[in-house]
Amino acid sequence: MPERSKLRLYLDSLRLERWPRSLAIIPGFVAVFVLDPGRWDAAALPALLVRLVAAFLLTWLISTANYIVNEITDAPFDRYHPQKKHRPLVDKRVDAVRLVLLWIVLVAASTVVARLLFPPPFLYSLLALLVAGLLYNVPPVRLKDVPFLDSTVESANNPIRLLIGWYAVESGFPPWLLLLAWWAFGNFLMVGKRVAEKKFLTEAESAGYRRSLKRYSQRMLVVFMVLNAGVFLLSFALFAVASGLSTLLFSLPFVLVYLGMFIRKSLKDREGAEEPEKLLKNPHFALYTLFLALVFVIAFLLRAAR
After folding, report:
1. What is the mean pLDDT of residues 266-287?
2. What is the Cα Rg of the chain in Å?
3. Is the CB of residue 200 less than 8 Å from the CB of residue 270?
4. For 109-136, b where at least 16 C-beta lie within 10 A, e where not — what string?
5. DSSP symbol at 272
């Protein structure tokens, strides 16, 4: 195989296209200034943007390291999935040992740079993202195979990424209700993915690919998805009130529509079994996501105008 084609296979194993997930650090970064507007200094904007970009790149590197772990530990199960069975490691087009060496390089480089550029809480949050990936993927723990814990641990990446963005500019701990809301929203999305997998994969595919699916019923997953939506809405509303951001409550009806769109997609369309960022390629989801972002901006400006 030509060297360039081989390199392409290793790059595919890193799943670099999932970089948008690392943008989840931005809400944590922005929250620092939303909750304490007095900290904002326009003159410091260039330096702040440099810190944000550095934090994003480090998060992306650690996330990529986690995808290497996932690529290796999931290879025996991915062969049961109609799309994932074509991953390079499943059909042995790449070498697992080289992937492990690449994991070591990524983790070492990320931790050293993080220690040099950021305070300890940032580094600890980055390492928490790494540890969460190991607990989720690696036997004998492999929480990916445990019902309810599978999605809950996977979605823990959401609040951890929020912490990374927060600690890029702040040293104190963020509001726990904000972390809970961000965690519940991530869990809502991950459970929705499992709803679609349970519905649209065959019994053999779902049982072989994701062991926890064997212990779920369709109804159980939908109930868990709705429960997470409720936890998200309640914790977000309480956070808005407790933080003096009550104008954000005006966004809740629009957020409810957004959640409903995801539930419907999970139940009605095989596309719901894809990764959440791929759903954003759907023009309806993309446009409504932009609209919802605008609603949040308007709600914040209304609060600032008071």
Report:
1. 72
2. 20
3. yes
4. ebbebbeeebeebbbebbbbbbebbeeb
5. G
